[in-house]
């Protein structure tokens, strides 16, 4: 009687087989890149720890600012400054800010500059990017070259100030909008996105008699919602956070944007013009100067925190697709 001995695969027992790999190692698919392989327990623990620390580094300062803005003088004194654990809470810092009038007016100025500036910058970026995305358009290469030059070389502060002063924009809100209305980087992002749109769709529309304006409005823009949302967020955050142009061009404190009030009151410790309170002497007995400072910081953060979640889902498709093809 013959006994059949099972053959042991050389691949299983050889140097590259399962015995050599060990029981704890997973075999990676040959077509999958190494960074897509499933991480082991140590790597998962390291990633979880790193992400947890990053989240805490972001959330703890935000929590501290909000809690401090809602704290009383006694709670701030007990904490020795910034309050991490909430105690007695009050909204008096916010009511003092609203009663002062300067901060609310500064919020209105910032909202106007952000809304008008973002709309104007998006219009300029869309029209310029669409024109530059068309091969053979008039002045295509010289205009593109000039845009690239501005990304590396600037005129400087003094020539820019002389141009703004020569246009009569000193103490005008347009001085906070026009000097930064054009961003070469954002235009190039949108141009590359437009170039990724299937040319066959655009050529079909031209054959059917559609004008360039109709193609832009009814075909290109609906297909470009992601990149428009992302670039619009870039412009909006830039306008909302800008304060240096206001330092240079705005002398009237009634036209100060919120960020300049924030800089003057929180960072430099100066009294806000037109208010009945200042960092050193407060007529609100239960409100600490630190609480009012943190309340101004919260007002400056809230609009961006509200808008960002609605635009965040467009980031991957808007920026990455616009950056692939040049």
Characterization of this structure:
It is globular, with a radius of gyration of 29 Å. By secondary structure, it is mainly alpha-helical. It has one domain: MetI-like fold. The protein is 64% helix and 0% strand.
Question: What distinguishing features does this structure have?
Answer:
transmembrane; membrane; MetI-like; globular; MetI-like_sf; MetI-like fold; transport; mainly alpha
Secondary structure elements and their pairing?
Blueprint: H1 10-13, H2 18-21, H3 41-69, H4 73-79, H5 92-100, H6 102-133, H7 140-152, H8 157-166, H9 184-195, H10 199-207, H11 212-223, H12 225-241, H13 244-249, H14 258-267, H15 289-312, H16 315-324
Family: Belongs to the binding-protein-dependent transport system permease family.
Main location: membrane
Membrane topology: Multi-pass membrane protein
Q: Give the strand content.
A: under 5%
- Look at the structure and give the mean pLDDT: 79
Q: For the record, what CATH class applies? A: Mainly Alpha
Count of β-strands: 0
Radius of gyration: 29 Å
Tally of DSSP helical segments:
16
In the predicted model, the low-confidence regions spanning at least 5 consecutive residues are 5-24, 280-287
CATH topology category name: MetI-like fold
Order of helices and strands: HHHHHHHHHHHHHHHH
Specify the structural class.
Answer: mainly alpha
Which sheet architecture does the biggest sheet show? Answer: none
Quick structural summary:
This protein has one domain (94-325): MetI-like fold (Orthogonal Bundle), CATH 1.10.3720.10. Helix content is 64%, strand content 0%. It has helices at 10-13, 18-21, 41-69, 73-79, 92-100, 102-133, 140-152, 157-166, 184-195, 199-207, 212-223, 225-241, 244-249, 258-267, 289-312, 315-324.
